[in-house]
Amino acid sequence: MSGSIYNGYAITTSGVVELVGKDETLAPTNYAGSVEIPLDANGSASGEILGVTLIQREEGSGSLLSVDGDLIILNADPSIAANAVTLGAAAAIWQSIVGAIPIANSDWRPTSTEDANGQYVHKIQAIPFESARSLWATFFLASATTMNDAGGDDEILECILRYRRDE
């Protein structure tokens, strides 16, 4: 079997999705704005997230933060504003969560002292999802330090999902 086939179905990637942009502040215990992750323009399909890579880069004069938090995956658009204090009170938002991937500051490689240009976390975690054209993601910041809290701080947090679609 080819390296790109898992249980008979092709593995694909979301491409790079920006969770926190260089001009977006994300304070401790707040949520990044929700972003859509299109799965396929040809129609809905169920499947399984197999793993995620988070990438953190600095484009300004600040330094990288090895942040703690949770990458939360949802199956409906939660319409979360950038730096939101809560996900919202609507039950539908909470019920649309299909999974979360905890990220610890010790997960980031290389450390910011080893490479000041960027860091990554790669987690292998199965998260099944029901039939959908898109998933949505947000990042809950559990660290005590705010991302992009000062002028020249241009931290960027991105993610890449690798998933298998049921064909």
Model description:
This protein has 167 residues and is mainly beta. It has one domain: Jelly Rolls, CATH 2.60.120. The chain has one helix and ten strands, in the order E-E-E-E-E-E-H-E-E-E-E. The strands form two sheets. Strands 1, 2, 3, 5, 8 and 10 form a six-stranded antiparallel β-sheet that branches. The chain is globular and about 45 Å long. The chain starts with a strand and ends with a strand.
SSE layout and pairing:
Layout: E1 5-6, E2 9-13, E3 17-20, E4 35-38, E5 45-58, E6 69-74, H1 91-95, E7 97-103, E8 118-132, E9 134-141, E10 155-165
Antiparallel strand pairs: 1-2, 2-10, 3-10, 4-9, 5-8, 5-10, 6-7, 6-9
Notable traits:
167 residues, mainly beta, Jelly Rolls, 6-stranded antiparallel β-sheet, 4-stranded antiparallel β-sheet, 3% helix, globular
The portion of residues forming beta strands comes to: over 45%
CATH class: Mainly Beta
Radius of gyration using CA atoms only: 16 Å
The shape is globular
Tell me roughly what share of residues is in helical segments: under 10%
The biggest beta sheet reads: 6 strands, antiparallel
Predict the CATH topology.
Jelly Rolls
Taking the alpha carbons of the first and last residues, their distance comes to 17 Å
* Average pLDDT over all residues: 88
- Provide the structure class: mainly beta
**Name of the CATH architecture:** Sandwich
Number of domains: 1
- The H-and-E topology, N to C, reads as EEEEEEHEEEE
* Structure annotation, total helices: 1
Poorly predicted ranges: none
* Number of extended strands: 10
